[in-house]
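The instructor's notes for this session suggest beginning with a concrete chain rather than abstract definitions. Hand out the sequence below and ask the class to guess, before any prediction is shown, which regions might be ordered.
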Amino acid sequence: MQPDVLVDITGIPELKRVEENADAIIVGACVTHADIEDGRVPDVTGGALPDVARGIAYRAVRNRGTLGGSLSHADPSADWVASLAAIGASVLIRGPAGSRSLAVEDFVTGVFEVALDPGEILEAVRIPRLSRSARWGYYKICRKTGELAQAIGAVLHDPERSAFRAVIGATESTPIVFSDAASLFGGTLRAGLPAAFDAGAAARVLSAAGMTDPYDNQIHVVALKRAIDRARLA
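After discussion, reveal the predicted structure:
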């Protein structure tokens, strides 16, 4: 089925705005991946956002693809769906009844499904400012460069903000979000995150979520482990 009307919303100023404050940055839904990659959007994440943007598909895609478009498309294998959930970002939604806010993990409700009511639009994304002591790791497994991921792992540890989050993405449904990731590390970080990571705990969570295929389960655990290794937390 073809649409009767195709509307280009990229010229709406509110959807291209970037507002920075002490706690977060508000990024309009029509800001492109390339805008983030090239530093046209102030980075409040210590390099996390540009690094994710740089790894999305190919440059031609990043020049046209948008932050809000990726989230609204809600492909389980998309980089922003998993990474922004790990960072603790939220979306700002506007519609006939006014504005509302949802955490990214609550906005994406299924495969290609989001929590938008009729007449609503994703207006912007609120990304929290990470502290200087925050550590971040992100890793995706792809068959070749530019393809959507087979498995995604992400971890954020920001003790100054009492944030310790992890995400396993590129599942067959919504990302698996650990809003408190301590359960993956035996409750202690004395040995550092890579040494404390309990791969068995992650595998059991995946199995409980329905990922019983040994290969799929393993590559998702590996993606999270490599994200943790990249975080290089002491």
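Then share the key points. DSSP finds nine helices and eleven strands in the chain. The chain has a mean pLDDT of 94.
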